Amino acid sequence: MASGRLQFLRMDSARNGVRFFSAISIVALLLLGGCQSDEDRVARFLERGEQYVEKGQNEEAIIEFKNVLQIDPENAAAHEALSLAYLQVEKPREAYWEMSETVRLDPDNIDARLRYGTVSAAIGDYDLAKEQAEAVLRLDPTKSAAYVLRGQAKESDEDYEGAEADFRAAVEHDPAGTAYRFILSAFLERRGRLEESEQVLRELLDIEESYRAASALARMLVRAGDRDDEALEWLRRSIELAKQAPTEKPEIEPDGAATSTTLLLSDLPREPAIQSAYMLLAAFHFDRGRFEEAIAALEEGIGESESKTELIYQMARLYRAKGMTAEENAAIRRATEESPDNAAAQLVLSAYLGKQGDLEGALKAATAAVEIAPEDKAARLRQAELLVDIGYRDEDPARIQAGREIVDAVLEEEPDNPSAHFVRAKIQLADGELEGARESLETVIQARPDWAQARFVLGSALAASNELSRARVELARTVELDPQLSGARKLLAKVHSQLGEHEFAIEQGRKYLEQVPDDNEVRIIVGQSLIRVGRGEEAYAEVEKIPEDKRDAPAYFALGRLDIAFGRTELGAERLRRADELAPGNPQVLRTLLGIDRATGDLAASAARIAKALEADPGNSEIAEIDGELKLIQGDREGARAAFEKAIELDERNVSAQLALADLEARAGNLAAAISVMERAAAAVPESSNLQYRLALVYERNGERAKAIDAYEKSISLNDDLAVAKNNLAYLLTESGGDLDRALELAQQAKEQLPDDANAADTLGWVLLKRGVPSAAIGYLEEAAERFPENALEIQGIVRNHLAEAYEANKDTARAITASRESLGYYEKLAKAARER
Predict the structure, then answer these.
(1) Region 642-667: what's the mean pLDDT?
(2) Are residues 806 and 774 in contact, defined by beta-carbon separation less than 8 angstroms?
(3) In angstroms, rounded to a whole number, what is the distance separating the alpha carbons of residues 688 and 710?
(4) How far is CA 408 from CA 193, 397, 746, in A?
(5) Does residue 8 register a pLDDT over 80?
């Protein structure tokens, strides 16, 4: 087997990335037969998994369900349970794959189909959503949730008549289901049929009068613009219903596609409902130019609400919108003045002053709250948080220690207190204890999932630990919860950029710049992302928005690179030299100018610049590395080798210098030396999954399979998302007669993570064939043959040969012969191409 070519293609696949899309239909796998003991083990794993789910231990449940699939890869119940567990631990991609497998293996499972279809619609795959809805309706023509799902798919395809028919059918089959009437009303409003939409809402209110429905009707009347009397009547009715709302949100059992809608339409608890109702009334008056009435509405709401914070803030915002700064401050302070013995009012004031940047004033208010209510944990923790923040700002250890002691005392009294864990996390972050901070913040979010500030701090900690995918999830949720939290949006833009998600980086960066237009760093990030998506002129215009008198070295560097990209080499070089003047010895600038000097034949300029930088900063590893690159261009291999060695001596964690030296040795034919350098690099940066993966590739090419297997395992242990390493290891284990159970586990995981990758399909098929399940292997191998390009002659020859073996093992002789001939045909083309070369 020519596995070298396979590895090359797998590396290409990893570099090019994959696209998450709906699972394709494949040939059904055979159920793996087993003895009675296997059946007992499956039952035991399933039972343990369900017990873990009941306890909320979803990570442990996932392991048990995976154990089932090791024995019986086509156990539909395990796939379904695994999909639900993955959703609980926020792994939607893995959950989606398991949903597709559940539906494939258990096509009559209505709930699974609805769930799969709902998620498909959420990610924009309406064709698949429609397919699932129609399958459900064939099984149960009365299922309202399926009509809704199909209606959504039809609406996305602009089949508005069909969508309306389905939404009406949902109502018809469940006349008491208020959710379906609400959906129909919203659809009619989107179509501009306001009278009909209003009529459906009124029918909904006849069935069940709720705050949500009444406020929806009130909003519709407000938007009409000419029905203010009716609007005001319903706004007042909304307030009455809000006061009657339950104190807590009711628990609702999941029900496929209807779940999110039902949760959406269940009434808000009383407190948020009251706040929302009065804010809506105030906004109505404010938009109609009745400022005094708006303030009066908020004051009435403050009187009705137990938690007054949001209403007070809204009053302050209205004053701010009118430019009434003094009144804004008075509105915030009034709460404490009217209730001087109210600790909650003092905390409101503390929060407001904190947002204004007045930390000392905020601390004074928090201290007053503690004096009023010494046992109030919220007040004590607010005081602790401010002591810590001011202590680190002013480098005051006494205040930091005072804050720490308060937190420790609260946690001793109440070990699960979310606010205490939040403040402790801030202390741990400041002390560099990232792991401890993450654990504290995860405890916080488990208890208070909608706390935006806690998610922001957790996202910051994850980003600092380079756990970018998890950081992105937390930061995205943060700005969803609090769009005004500009720091979170800035970090989210940076994380998207680092992950290569440039469209999202542009979107978040621009939203942030609307709030903070003078932030050069984010403007440059937006410009860089625009370049990556091919919008160069737009990128240039974005960066040029930075005023000349505010351009720093990064701004000149960004503009210079853009100039060069547009062929304005002289202007670009001038701006890069300006960047070098403002920040001498910056490695990025030096490396870019080296590229320009190489192109213009003026290496002497770069040599002088690099020598000057080395003299000024002899301990800079990256500058030493650039010196090696210069010497390599000049043909001085020994000088380059010495420079790279110097860079590594200065910083053994300089991975790029290590790789450059390894490449130099390999080009010189010193393969053993190249491997030695790679081993040294992997030892220097033991947490780098990428280095372990590269080392595994080198070992495999050198025929050192045992070492390659060990390096692949290390890379996966460091990064479980490294699907290409899982795929290669599964293939290598299979080829070398290794543990086929482990190979199957890895191949299945790689296919889940790389659903569109031909190598992953080929590897999974090959492993299944070696395990003696040819019928299961055929579908994956056929998929691989379809996905590999026709001009990939060697790999097509290999895959067709795999197919031939699978067909033969499945006693399909005719197709085995056909696949064998196809395989030979590709090898003949390969040989012809070699002769021509």
Answers:
(1) 90
(2) yes
(3) 15
(4) 59, 16, 44
(5) no
Q: Find the helix packing angle between 178-190 and 211-224, rounded to 10°.
A: 10
Mean pLDDT of the residues in the chain: 85
Q: What is the pTM of this model?
A: 0.45
What are the structure tokens assigned to 388, written together? 């810590």
Tell me, what DSSP letter sits at residue 434?
Answer: H
Rg (CA), the chain: 32
- The residues near 242 (Cβ < 8 Å, ≥ 6 apart) are 211, 268, 270, 273, 274, 276, 277
- The amino acid that residue 771 corresponds to is R
- CB count within 10 Å of CB 244 equals 12
Question: In the predicted model, is pLDDT for residue 780 greater than 80?
Answer: yes
The CA–CA distances, whole Å, from 179 to 174, 184, 193 equal 10, 9, 19
d(C-alpha 99, C-alpha 627), whole Å: 53
Residue in the structure block whose two tokens are 């024995």: 71
DSSP annotation of 28 reads P
**What is residue 27's predicted lDDT score, i.e. its pLDDT?**
31
At CB < 8 A and 24+ separation, what contacts does 412-418 make? 413/377, 414/377, 416/443, 416/447, 417/377, 417/381, 418/443, 418/444, 418/447, 418/448, 418/451, 418/454
Give the Cα separation of 781 and 770 in Å (integer): 13
**Residue where the block lists tokens 């009657």:** 244
- CA separation, residue 584 to residues 547, 559, 560, 571, 728 (Å): 22, 17, 16, 19, 44
Token pair 């021509």 in the structure block, residue: 836
Listed in sequence order, the residues at least 6 apart from 136 whose beta carbon sits closer than 8 Å to its beta carbon are: 110, 113, 114, 117, 143, 145, 146, 149
Record the tokens describing residue 457, joined without a space. 């701090």
